[in-house]
Amino acid sequence: MVEEVFFGGLTNSTAMIVDALQDLMNAVSIGLALLLEKVSGKKRSAKFSNVYKRF
Q1: Where are the alpha helices (DSSP H) in the chain?
Q2: Are 4 and 18 in contact (CB under 8 A)?
C-alpha cells in the first residue's frame, strides 16, 4: 500500500492513491468485523446484564 501511494504521488496518479486508500479501508473494516465478532461472543457480566450478542 505504501509503495502504491508513493508511486501514485510520484506519477501524479490520483487513481493509484485512491486505490491504496480503498485497500486500507477494506483492511480496517475486516479487522473491525473480526474484533466485533469476538466481542459478540462474550457472556454477560455484572456490568452488562444482557449479552453482547444482538441476534
Answers
A1: 2-10, 14-40
A2: no
- The distance between the two most distant Cα atoms of the chain, rounded to a whole number of Å, is 57
Residue type, 36: L
Per the domain annotation, does 51 fall within a domain?
Answer: no
Triad 7, 23, 14: Cα angle to 5°: 40
The answer to whether residue 24 sits within a structural domain is: yes
Domain enclosing residue 12, as ranges: 2-38
| pLDDT tens by residue, 10-38 | 898 899 999 999 999 999 999 999 998 88
Question: Quick check: is 30 in a domain?
Answer: yes
Number of domains the chain contains? 1
CB distance 16 to 7 below 8 Å: yes
